Amino acid sequence: DQQVKQNSPSLSVQEGRISILNCDYTNSMFDYFLWYKKYPAEGPTFLISISSIKDKNEDGRFTVFLNKSAKHLSLHIVPSQPGDSAVYFCAALGGSNYKLTFGKGTLLTVNP
Amino acid sequence: DTAVSQTPKYLVTQMGNDKSIKCEQNLGHDTMYWYKQDSKKFLKIMFSYNNKELIINETVPNRFSPKSPDKAHLNLHINSLELGDSAVYFCASGGPGPGGTQYFGPGTRLLVL
């Protein structure tokens, strides 16, 4: 039972353009949503989060949008840079045991 | 300064063996976690400890036993290793307070032959 879904396993974008990574969830009890970035052979690193009471949070080139009615969030990266190439995990906090539940990840490739 | 460190980074072993993975954090967090990333790339929580006390155990086989000697350390011991235990194991610390930000170690790649 996947409560957090990232339906696109991969995304390829040109440098300088916008990258949009999507995430859907099923549990309306989630309190926070987070994005993590992971390079090969490293652990995930926290990127940005959003509370369930907000609809947007921005940090530099990264913006997360939350649409609670659609149970959907997205991460926008503008402008995309080659160093952004990584796997991006969407995660949600809450539910039973108040734990982080991760999506399967989306591999972003930013081409120079 | 490594915030969350794990040893070893790679572990290759035979079925039936017992092995341990160590984790240490220097962030002063009260809560530490073990996650497993399997071959399908799902990252799933296994255990959570808060100040040396077990608070989450996500139906993990009892061959897996976490041990927290103090709040800066959370070790994972695995008995009678099976082929299906092959995965990447990540330790993390932080959360679960508002924001739930967790900081992950580099992972331990376990291969059971």
Provide structural commentary.
The complex is a heterodimer of chains A (112) and B (113). Chain A has no helices and 11 strands. Chain A has 112 residues and is mainly β. Chain B is mainly beta. In chain B, strands 2, 4, 5, 6, 9, 10 and 11 form a 7-stranded mixed sheet that branches. Chain B starts with a strand and ends with a strand. The model of chain B has no long low-confidence stretch (mean pLDDT 90). Chains A and B meet through β4, β5, β9 and β10 of A and β5 and β10 of B.
What's the topology here?
The complex is a heterodimer of chains A (112) and B (113).
Chain A: E1 4-5, E2 10-14, E3 19-25, E4 30-38, E5 45-51, E6 56-59, E7 62-67, E8 72-77, E9 86-94, E10 99-102, E11 106-111
Parallel strand pairs in A: 2-11
Antiparallel strand pairs in A: 1-3, 3-8, 4-5, 4-9, 6-7, 7-8, 9-10, 9-11
Chain B: E1 4-7, E2 10-13, E3 19-25, E4 31-37, E5 43-50, E6 53-57, E7 64-70, E8 73-78, E9 87-94, E10 102-104, E11 108-112
TL;DR?
The complex is a heterodimer of chains A (112) and B (113). Chain A has no helices and eleven strands. Chain A is mainly β.
Quaternary organisation of the protein chains: heterodimer
Overall structural class of chain A, as computed from helix and strand content, comes to mainly beta
Low-confidence stretches of chain A: none
Helices and strands of chain B: which structural class?
mainly beta
On the 0 to 100 scale, the average pLDDT of chain A is 94
Globally, the shape of chain B reads globular
End-to-end gap of chain B: 34 Å
User: Overall 3D geometry of chain A?
Assistant: globular
Tell me about the biggest sheet of chain A?
6 strands, mixed
Classify the beta-strand content of chain A into a percent band: over 45%
Largest interface: A-B, 23 and 25 residues
Annotation field: number of helices of chain A = 0
**What fraction, in percent, of the residue positions of chain B are helical?**
under 10%
Would you list the SSEs of chain B in sequence order as H and E? EEEEEEEEEEE
Gyration radius of chain B (Cα, Å) is: 13 Å
Helix content of chain A: under 10%
**What string, H for helix and E for strand, traces the elements of chain A in order?**
EEEEEEEEEEE
Report how far apart the termini of chain A are.
Answer: 38 Å
Radius of gyration computed on alpha carbons of chain A: 13 Å
Task: Report the count of strand segments of chain A.
Answer: 11
Tally of DSSP β-strands of chain B: 11
